[in-house]
Structure formats: C-alpha cells, structure tokens
C-alpha cells in the first residue's frame, strides 16, 4: 500500500524520451499502480509508441478528488523523468518551475539532424549541469549501465521506475508496484523486482 498521500493535488508527472525507450511502459505501470491505490489518473501521449526515434512525451496527472484534463500547463510539472538527456532539458525549459524534481538517465540518442552532421549534440556534463540548475532536486540514474550489469538492457525502464518511486515523490512503494510488475512481466518478475530495487537503491531508498 502507499506510504503517504500526494505531495500536491493534482500531481503532474512528465515522462520524456524517444520512441522505443520504454517510457510508455513506465507510464502504464505508474498509472495502473495509482489506480489500484484508489487515485484518479489521466494520461496523454504526444506520439504513438511505434514512432521510434522521435520525441515521446507522456503526461500523467494524478488526483484523489478529480479527473483532470490530461494536458499539463506549461511551468506546472512537479516531476520530470527524463530517459534522454537533451529531451529532459527541453521539458524543463517548457514545463519546469522552482520546485520541480528531475530524474535523468544520462543517455544521448542523436536525432536525424545530428546524425546527418547538421548539428552537434551538447556536451553531456553541460547538459546535466543545466538540468541541475533548473531543478529543485535532481538524481542522475545511469539506468542503461545498471541494466547491462543485470544482463538485460530492457530493464532500464524498470530501474528508472524504481528510482522514481524511491525519490518519494509518489505515494507508492515497492509493495504497491509488485502486483503491477507481476501482471506485466509474469515470466520475469524476479529479475524485474531486482531492477526495481536497484532503482530505489540508486536514490538512497531501499
């Protein structure tokens, strides 16, 4: 069961990455867990999950009292989970505010204009510093690296989910996510729970 109530109602969460990273899966897992816990959840996605390589932004709004519009107003994000560094900074510029919490996966996925040599990807250290300056709290979670250690790169999104829950920004805990992960990954539940626990560990919550 959740350990506390919402830090704000509605709670505005943005998950951003590129198509194929698994950010839609994270959004669905969070939404399912929050609904199971008795919350009202609205969800909106910029592009279909099959559009690989393009920016995918998922808006999740969570409330105990009302079913809100799925569109988060600019400057109103409470939490931004960024699965790609440059896209995270873009979201912070548009939706951030002085109290926003950011979790970033320091991974660079180059868009077409950079691959074609028309532009250069920003320096990762400078990107992270800029993200830090725009965030009240920030965690850098190298989910791709940790997933490789566990033997499956697809676990990166579950590691980030664990980090999100471990950050204390959602009224969820490991126990409340276990049935959701069991339903989604019935044949790999132990490995996914290990990945989830690793994410919690990386933000200092176990």
| DSSP summary: helix tally | 8
H/E series, N to C?
A: EHEEEHEHHEHHHH
- What does the main sheet amount to? 6 strands, mixed
CATH fold group: Pyruvate-ferredoxin Oxidoreductase, domain 3
Intertermini distance = 16 Å
Structural class: alpha/beta
Helix content: 25-40%
What would your notes on this structure say?
- Helix content is 40%, strand content 17%.
- The model has no long low-confidence stretch (mean pLDDT 88).
- The chain has one domain (11-202): Pyruvate-ferredoxin Oxidoreductase, domain 3.
- Strands 2-3-1-4-5-6 form a 6-stranded mixed beta sheet, sandwiched between helices.
- The protein has 8 helices and 6 strands; from the N terminus they run βαβββαβααβαααα.
- It is an alpha/beta fold and 206 residues long.
- It is globular, with a radius of gyration of 16 Å.
In short:
Helix content is 40%, strand content 17%.
SSE diagram, text form:
Elements: E1 11-18, H1 23-36, E2 40-45, E3 55-63, E4 79-82, H2 85-95, E5 101-104, H3 112-115, H4 124-133, E6 137-140, H5 143-149, H6 156-166, H7 174-184, H8 189-202
Helix pairs in contact: 1-6, 1-7, 2-4, 5-6, 6-8, 7-8
Task: Sum up the structure in keywords.
alpha/beta, single chain, 6 strands, 206 residues, Pyruvate-ferredoxin Oxidoreductase, domain 3, globular, 6-stranded mixed sheet
């Amino acid at each position: 069961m959740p350990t506390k109530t919402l830090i704000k109602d509605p709670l505005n969460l943005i998950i951003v990455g590129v198509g194929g990273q698994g950010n839609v899966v994270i959004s669905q897992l969070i939404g399912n867990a929050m609904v199971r816990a008795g919350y009202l959840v609205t969800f909106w996605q910029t592009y279909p999950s099959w559009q690989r390589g393009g920016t995918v932004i998922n808006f999740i709004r969570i409330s105990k009292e009302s079913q809100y519009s799925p569109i988060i107003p600019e400057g109103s994000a409470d939490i931004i989970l960024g699965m790609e560094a440059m896209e995270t900074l873009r979201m912070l510029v548009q939706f951030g505010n002085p109290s926003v919490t950011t979790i970033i996966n320091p991974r660079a996925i180059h868009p077409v204009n950079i691959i074609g040599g028309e532009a250069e990807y920003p320096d990762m250290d400078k990107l992270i510093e800029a993200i830090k300056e725009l965030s009240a709290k920030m965690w850098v979670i190298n989910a791709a690296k940790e997933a490789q250690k566990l033997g499956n790169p697809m676990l990166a999104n579950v590691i980030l989910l664990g980090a999100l829950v471990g950050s204390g920004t959602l009224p969820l805990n490991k126990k409340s996510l276990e049935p959701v992960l069991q339903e989604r990954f019935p044949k790999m539940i132990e490995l996914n729970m290990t990945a989830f626990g690793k994410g919690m560990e990386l933000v200092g919550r176990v």
